[in-house]
Specification:
alpha/beta; about 375 residues; globular; Aspartate Aminotransferase, domain 2; binds pyridoxal-5'-phosphate; 4-stranded antiparallel beta sheet
Amino acid sequence: MLPFVRKDLVDFAAYKPHPGGGDKSDGVSTTQVDRLDTNESPYDLPPELKEKLAWTYQRLIETNRYPDGGHQTLRDAIAEYVNESARGLPSLFTAANMTVGNGSDEIIRSLLIASCLGEGSILVAQPTFSMYAILAQTLGIPVVKVGRNEENFEIDLQAAQLALEKTQNPPIRAVFVVHPNSPTANPLTAAELTWLRSLSEQILVVIDEAYFEFSQTTLVNELLQHSNWVVLRTFSKAFRLAAMRVGYCIAHPELITILEKVRLPYNIPSFSIAAALVALQNRKLLLQSISQTLSERTKIIHALSQNPVFQVAPSAANFIFLRLKPTDSLSKDAAIKSLHQKLKASGTLVREVGGGLRITVGTIEENDRTLNHLNLC
Ligand SMILES: *Cc1c(COP(=O)(O)O)cnc(C)c1O
C-alpha cells in the first residue's frame, strides 16, 4: 500500500464503468450483444448530423487552441431550450442560470465541493443513482442513506426527516433526488415534493432530471421560489450524446458563480461543445424517437406483466425496473442474480441493482430479443 494515500480510498469500491462498445469496429465478434444496461439512447446521431459535425471539426475547430472556457454560446442555447420546458414562463432563465459540466457527474462533484466538503453530509434514498454516494465518498463526505416504500418506491420521508434532524458532525447539507428515479423509474410523488419544499434554505436540494425528455415532468418552474434547489440535466440520454460527456445545471445565479469557480477551466472539449450545440439545434429531429421509446416501454411492461413471477413497476423513463415475486425455491436475490446471468449469457446486458434488474428500452429488435430471452415471446 502506498503510505501517502488516504486509507479510506484503498478499500473503496469505485463505479464500475461500462466496458465500452466497440462492437461495430470489432470485426471478430460474431455474437449479438444488446447493451441495455446504461440507459443510453439506442440510436446514434443521424448521418447528416455526423457529417455536419465532421465539417465543423475540419473547418472551425483549431485543435491547438483551448476550448471556449466560458461556454457562453452553449449556455445561451441551453437556456433557450430550458425555457421551452418552463411552460408559461417563456424567458425565465438566461446563461447566468446555467453551468455546463463534463457530464452531469462533474457537476455533482462540484455541488458536493461547494456545499459539503469538510463540513457537511449528504442524504440519499436507496436505491438511487450510485454516483452521488460514490463521488461524496471520494471527497470524504459522509453519506446518510434512507430507504423507500417497497410498493411505489416513495422515499421513507419519516426516516429522511429524522436523519435531517439527528445527523450531526457533520450535519446534512445536501439532499439528492432523481426525477424520475433510477433504477426504480418513478417520478417524485406529491408527498415527496411537499417534503422537499419544506426543507430549510440551508440545505441544497439537487433534483436530477437526467430523464426529463422521457418523463416530460420538470421542476424548473419552482427554481425561482427556492434558491437552494438546483436541477441537473444531461445530453447523455435522450440527446444521444453519451460519448461526448456534456451535462448541465440550472440554478440561482449566485450558486452558478460558485460552481464556475469550482470547475476546471477547460472542462468540455471543443468537439463536445460543438456536438451539444448541433444536438440542440436539431432537437426536433433527435427527440422524435422518444415516442417510439415510450410505446416500446408500454409493450415491454405489458409483456412482462403476463408472467406471474415478474413484478414490473410503472416507468416514467426510458428503462424498466423488474423484480421477482417471492418463490419457495430460491431467495429473491439469488433468483435475480441467476436471471441477470442468464440474460448476459444470451447476449442481453442489463443492470442488476436495488434488488431487481434495470432494463433500458432499446430498439424494437433489441426489445423483442430481451422479451425472447426472458421467454416471453
Ligand atoms: C445517466 C444519468 C446521468 C448522466 O450522467 P452524465 O455524467 O451526464 O453522463 C445523471 N444522473 C442520472 C440519474 C443518470 O441516470
